[in-house]
Amino acid sequence: MALERLVVLVGGVGGAKLALGLTHILPPESLTFIVNTGDDMTYYGLHISPDIDTLLYTLSGRVDPVNGWGVAGDTRIMLETLRDFGESPWFGLGDKDIATHLIRTTMLNQGYRLTETIARLAESIHVLPRVLPMCDAPVPTMIETVEEGTLAFQEYFVKHRWQPTVKAIRHQGAEKASLSPEVKQAIAQADAILIAPSNPWLSIAPILAVPGMREALMARDVPRVAVTPIVNGAAIKGPTAKIMAELGLEVTAESVAAYYKDLLTGFITDVQDTFQNLKALRTTAFDTMMINDTRKIALAREVLDWIG
Amino acid sequence: MALERLVVLVGGVGGAKLALGLTHILPPESLTFIVNTGDDMTYYGLHISPDIDTLLYTLSGRVDPVNGWGVAGDTRIMLETLRDFGESPWFGLGDKDIATHLIRTTMLNQGYRLTETIARLAESIHVLPRVLPMCDAPVPTMIETVEEGTLAFQEYFVKHRWQPTVKAIRHQGAEKASLSPEVKQAIAQADAILIAPSNPWLSIAPILAVPGMREALMARDVPRVAVTPIVNGAAIKGPTAKIMAELGLEVTAESVAAYYKDLLTGFITDVQDTFQNLKALRTTAFDTMMINDTRKIALAREVLDWIG
């Protein structure tokens, strides 16, 4: 079966890598990304959507190849000038990056939905697959920590460099959010659903917390497959493994599969792992370490072939 | 008489030059600048105060020495990136300059008055004289033109490079503005009032349009002196002479003096001009061409000595 309409749930850097691979296999009209916006924040009045921007920069070839986020070759002249004025900025704002934030913020202030602002940004830099925020309402991810109390996501992630111990994660205001028409339609028309190897707790859980999201996905009798973000007891990047340990979970692909519960019909582990399939999921193992563009494309092809 | 408390009404580049000269003669606690904010605008969500910033950059030694506005050595990386996104920005936003706008905008959004935001900016870059906006409310200068209809000030000045023919100038919302406590106190305590050689119609008129401003100034029985912005039938910089002609006025220092009416007790012309004093003002003539810092300081000294 050739996939005609794939929906991918995606968070930040790791998910964007697989997303890039997928764009090399499928035509843009076959691809819709539903992206975590629980990380969004307003900083110096700018509406910042870190995961959206990572994906847009990755798919348009702009992304910084070392960090995996931000714009390649970006400068921080504005940010350094803030310091001259006695400010102590803790969030990176590249000068090129600020253009993205200003366009988005201006449009939001004019009354456009977040979905529309992202469509406009994507179109202007020739990102052709659909990039949809998980919803239009703000649903900030709040991290309850042992040492620092409750932190907004970027405070936890950037300001405190994900060092505080996580007790719980809340999706603030989720009850007031709803699925956008674009997300509803994409899911309704999908012939497969893929969860990227993003952090299940920090990147995918916010998407699933939008009222109606999990139900809409579950209602589709199509392959619903996740790629493990855990390889050999560790995360490739970021705090996934650390958070799992803090939440009292075993740091294994099995824990991730268990977390997604009956959302999944299939699960892709890494070839380095032996997967104890407790849930009778359809499973397979690939090399999921996307160390270069060749491996991103190869994994995308393997995943799509297997789903198909 | 030694001046202890001088109040200076000031607009953009020309006024800032004399302001810089004054800071070399008077101690900072003796100097209060009341600055035109009719040029202010919101651009990409940023609150921009061009005349305030020109003065802050000039007094802190940051100003671009060629343009007389903006920050020396500033870059336009953000602005060029806007173009990559298909935008057509027409107003210059330097990367360093944006820091000023973000701090001001953030504070305004937090509920601070414009006066407070400028005090905070000034303090952090060690500008010690008081820099006060003419008022805290927005009073945008609207230019009615023959060719382009009504334009907001920066659209007229920057976007259309002051080429359209001016029919009339309005101070929109002036009726809702009022004198800030800081402006009231500065005027009440002044032992002299100086009008910088700024554009009377575009830079000083907005200040005088704030309800109570002219009356507060006139109520003070102290020297009230203007320096001519017209020398030898022309403006040093900008559209002063052009606007005078369009408004049907002779392009002379006399026309400027007549425009200020009984606000003035004294008027300073340039040595190049013969001044026909129709109003029995106290007058004198100096070299008002502030071609370098030495001349800025020399003119400031001559003006102060004469007022004193």
Question: What's the short version?
Answer:
2 copies of one chain form a homodimer. Helices cover 38% and strands 19% of the residues of chain A.
Task: Explain this structure.
The structure is a homodimer of 308-residue chains. Chain A has 308 residues and is an alpha/beta fold. The first copy, chain A, has a domain at 6-38 and 128-307: Rossmann fold (3-Layer(aba) Sandwich). Chain A has helices at 13-23, 50-59, 77-84, 95-109, 114-124, 153-159, 181-189, 200-208, 213-218, 240-246, 253-260, 293-307, and strands at residues 6-10, 31-35, 41-43, 46-48, 130-133, 141-145, 149-152, 166-171, 192-195, 224-227, 230-231, 234-235, 266-270, 282-286. In chain A, the strands form four sheets. Chain A has a seven-stranded parallel beta sheet with strand order 5-2-1-9-10-13-14, with helices on both faces. Chain A binds chain B through residues 44-46, 71, 74-75, 77-79, 81-82, 84-87, 95-96, 98-100, 102-103, 105-106, 109, 121, 124-125, and chain B through 44-46, 71, 74-75, 77-79, 81-82, 84-87, 95-96, 98-100, 102-103, 105-106, 109, 121, 124-125.
